[in-house]
Write a structure and sequence with these properties.
Order of helices and strands: EEEHHHHHHHEH
CATH topology: Fumarate Reductase Cytochrome B subunit
Mean pLDDT: 84
Distance between the termini: 12 Å
Radius of gyration: 21 Å
Strand content: 5-15%
CATH architecture: Up-down Bundle
Low-confidence stretches: 1-28
Shape: elongated
Largest sheet: 2 strands, antiparallel
Number of helices: 8
CATH superfamily: Transmembrane di-heme cytochromes, Chain C
CATH class: Mainly Alpha
Number of strands: 4
Number of domains: 1
Structural class: mainly alpha
Length: about 250
């Protein structure tokens, strides 16, 4: 089957319902299938972004003198090129998200408190997850909120302060430029630590699937077991728009 850039725009949108407790909309009951829910570009974006972020964190710590594994000049050079590559990746990914409609995955969803309760308590006592992943519902409410914060707050703060810092030679003659530079450096470092915290939490959350490596495997292969409504199954059979293993 041919992999499409996104699953938007098909007539088999998930049928949803909301309970009186304010739980997130859930797909109507259906049969489970191993479906490619993460396209090639999503997986490329994810792993490229991960590699670049780890590179930036490592070289950033080197620039700050937290380790001596790289000399200062090398750390600055690698950090700068990795930052440029990440900005380019984010620009292309933002364009991809809007042109494919995938930006809808990151909109706020109802039921966030049930998801928070699950991760804070329910997961420890064996409660079922209150959210069901579907063909058009990749992110639960907490994930959507976290990724939205990453893309709208942390990411832009990192880009802006990093670009201003790199362009210091262009505004070094501004009065009190040194003071401004110190403030920019502080904000850039603060944003970097927020990304580091995001990464640590993100890596931990990948271990909370059916097995420790379930979510990691899913992000490598693109396939996950999800329920499909009858309409979705019929649409996929007719159009062959989404790869299905069973």
């Amino acid at each position: 089957m041919v992999e499409t850039a996104s699953h938007r725009g098909n007539p088999a949108e998930t049928v949803t319902s909301t309970d009186q407790g304010g739980a997130p909309d859930q797909p109507a009951p259906g049969h489970k299938h191993s479906v490619m829910i993460y396209t090639r570009y999503e997986r490329f974006w994810h792993w490229s972004q991960a590699a670049l972020i780890f590179t930036l964190l490592f070289t950033g710590l080197g620039v700050h003198g937290s380790h001596g594994l790289l000399d200062f000049k090398t750390a600055v050079t690698v950090h700068t090129y990795a930052a440029i590559a990440l900005i380019v990746l984010w620009v292309f990914t933002t364009f991809w998200n809007f042109t494919t409609g995938q930006w809808r995955q990151y909109l706020f969803k109802a039921g966030i408190w049930k998801v928070i309760r699950f991760y804070a308590y329910g997961i420890l006592v064996g409660d079922p997850h209150p959210y069901k992943k579907g063909l058009h519902r990749k992110q639960n409410a907490l994930q959507s909120l976290a990724y939205m914060g990453f893309m709208l707050v942390i990411g832009p703060a990192l880009w802006a302060t990093g670009i201003i810092y790199l362009a210091y030679d262009l505004w070094r003659d501004v009065p009190n430029a040194g003071t401004y530079l110190a403030g920019i450096a502080f904000l850039h470092t603060a944003a970097a630590f927020m990304i580091a915290a995001f990464v640590i939490i993100h890596v931990y959350m990948t271990t909370t699937g059916k097995t420790v490596f379930h979510y990691i495997k899913t992000m490598f292969t693109g396939y996950d077991s999800v329920e499909l409504t009858a309409a979705e199954e019929a649409y996929i059979r007719e159009t062959h728009s989404v790869p299905v293993r069973d």
